[in-house]
Amino acid sequence: MSHRSFSISITIFLLLCSSSARSQEPATPRSSDESAVALRKKAIDLLVSVAGQVDSLRSLENRARINSNLGESLWDHDEKRSRSLFAAVEEDIKSGLSDSEPDESAHTRTLLVFWKLRSDTIERIAKHDPEFALEFLRATRAAPGVQIPTYLVGDTEKSLQLRLARQIAAKEPRLALQLGRQSLTNGFSPDLLAVVARLQLRDKELSRSLYKEIVDKLKRVNLQVDPTATELALSLARSFQPPAADEMVYRDLIGVLLADALASGCAEVTGEAPQICYEVASVFSKIEMYYPARAASLKRWTEHAGWLGDPEMPAPISEIAANGTIDEILALLPNYPAFQDEIYWHAVMKAQATGDVARARQIASDSANEDLRQYLDKQAERNQAVKSVTPDKLAAIQQQLARFPGNEARIEFLLYMASVIGGSDRKAGLGLLSQAGEIVNSTTPGKAQLRGQIRLAMAYCFLKSDRGFAIMESLMPKLNELVNAAAALNGVDNNYLRDAEWNMTGEGGLGRLLTELAQNAGYFARFDFDRSVILTGQFERPELRLMAQLKLAQSVLANQQNTPSVFSPDYDFR
Fold first, then answer.
1. Angle, to 10 degrees, between the axis of helix 104-126 and the axis of helix 60-74?
2. Among 223-227, 268-272, 311-315, which stretch is predicted with the lowest mean pLDDT?
3. Is 318 within 8 Å of 200 (Cβ atoms)?
4. What are phi and psi of 568, to 5 degrees?
5. Cα 238 to Cα 52, 169, 185, 282, 489, distances in angstroms
6. What is the spatial distance between Cα 159 and Cα 180, in angstroms, rounded to a whole number?
7. Backbone phi, psi, residue 497, to 5°
8. Residue 136 half-sphere exposure, CB side, CA atoms within 13 Å?
9. Are 317 and 332 in contact (CB under 8 A)?
10. For the residues 89-97, what does the mean pLDDT come to?
11. Alpha carbons 174 and 197: distance in angstroms, whole number
12. How many CB atoms sit inside 10 A of residue 509's CB?
């Protein structure tokens, strides 16, 4: 059975008898404030301990990666130390981006790693000090002559700058405007749209100012030879209309698109037409409003409006829905009355993602969308249904299990269902894990079995069972043995090492397993922090030990009650 078929089958089954695993975490007594404070102190002490050992590492990549994470996690506890850690990251990244490895493949790989580390670190610093983040961005630019393969990393210097502007707009709108202006002097970018959207929420006048400057520059360029400019002009026209945009500036923008369409021959062309002729249909009503005499020759293109599909979601809605708060999403309602249903839907989904079910229901009740309210009602019914684990439901699980050919699919299904029902019936959940364990043990020794054992250990810890630690303690010697064997084969099948240390980029099957284990450290840390620290201490390689301990502490400080599913394999170290 394919992975897609497996996923669909689980989805159908869950719709019939369960809700999400996330909403069914085991009901454990709420920790007292005193114990929570004590646990946070242990986590901070562990981070401080890790920080004191990082300088012993030889790999620039490992030092930069771990120090970047430490700098973010320790900021509220010790800002001075965090700044010092980020300064060390700056030096390591500058050295990494100055790599002179003669082997072209190795050189490119090094540049990719450090460019990603740079981007992640800028994002981390910006959460606390936008100006410091800008200083870091400027200080870590690649040296002249160093060519970053942007077709692989996806980020140019300009896009990094605009991403920073978008992130800091709420805290430092004037600095965000400055970055947007600087980027505009170097050409157009679709990312400018997100900066305008974020500024609009914080300071409408600054947003309008950047909008006007973009339009002024669009008026001076030939859109026929600049597809990025054309795309930006169309997106602005669709996404920012009066009153969000100044009336006269918006009129000028529509004039730019009208001129481009006419210059492209859209008024006369009879054969194959340029793309702008079709796209102009989406803003024709505005062209007709502001330039009725000149619009007539373009009206025929409205016949192709259906070719464009459904109306495009305005960029501000997409941007704020993905990266904004619930209140920021709801603040979009006055400016986009035609998209009220979509805005309310995104706000409800955001409330649910943060665990605020009451807020989700309140937002749904404010909406005129009956489908949204029915969706929440049905979800509540499913949540209520899963609270009672009946013999019939357990029998249905076994019937569904029998339909999956292959051990891996069966193991994943049992682990998932154990986490779903374990919150209301721990005994039944543990019974399913025991059944999964039998299948894991019968699997041919190798990567699939090892992966199943690790995930089984996580699932046991999720249900607060010591069996999880017992499994992992038995696996540690094997993991160390495999790491040593992989290190000996470095460069033969995968590049596991950098500067004689294990790199954290998830190379190969073993690398991905270790990555998944570290990214799910919270399952162990929230169950028994002290025992988790002892467990990570069994890694023979110090770089693996330090990264694992870092992830343990971070999971506590972030209060990650809803960690990524142990059944999703796609994680990476950042």
1. 10
2. 311-315
3. no
4. -105, 120
5. 53, 22, 23, 8, 55
6. 10
7. -110, 150
8. 31
9. yes
10. 96
11. 14
12. 17
Which residues are within 8 A (CB) of 525 and not within 5 positions of it... i.e. 6 or more apart? 43, 532, 552, 553, 555, 556
Please report, as a single letter, which amino acid is at residue 349: M
User: Which amino acid is located at 456 in the chain?
Assistant: L
Q: What is the DSSP string of 392-415?
A: HHHHHHHHHHTT--SHHHHHHHHH
Cα–Cα separations (whole angstroms), residue 489 to 435, 483, 496, 508, 563: 36, 10, 8, 12, 33
Label residue 325 left, alpha or beta by phi (over 0 means left) and psi (-120 to 50 means alpha). Answer: beta
Region of 214 on the Ramachandran plot (φ > 0 left; ψ -120 to 50 alpha; else beta): alpha
Distance separating alpha carbons of residues 181 and 212, to the nearest angstrom: 11
User: How far apart are the C-alpha atoms of 97 and 93, rounded to whole Å?
Assistant: 6
The distance from CA 401 to its chain's CA centroid, rounded to whole angstroms, is 32
User: For the chain, percent helix, then strand, then coil, each to nearest 5?
Assistant: 70, 0, 25
Q: What are phi and psi of 501, to 5 degrees?
A: -125, 155
Question: By the 8 A CB rule, do 319 and 197 touch?
Answer: yes
**Could you tell me what percent of the chain has a pLDDT over 70?**
88
Is residue 562 over pLDDT 50?
no
Is residue 304 within 8 A of residue 278, CB to CB? The reply is yes
Determine the pLDDT at residue 384. 65
* 8-state DSSP, 243: T
**Which single residue is written with the structure tokens 């990264």?**
547
The 10s digit of each residue's pLDDT in 444-475 is 999 999 999 999 999 999 999 999 999 999 99
Length of the chain: 574
CA atoms within 13 A on the CB side of 130: 19
Among 430, 432, 450, CA closest to 440: 450
Cβ-based neighbours of 334, under 8 Å, separated by 6 or more: none
Q: What is the pTM of this model?
A: 0.84
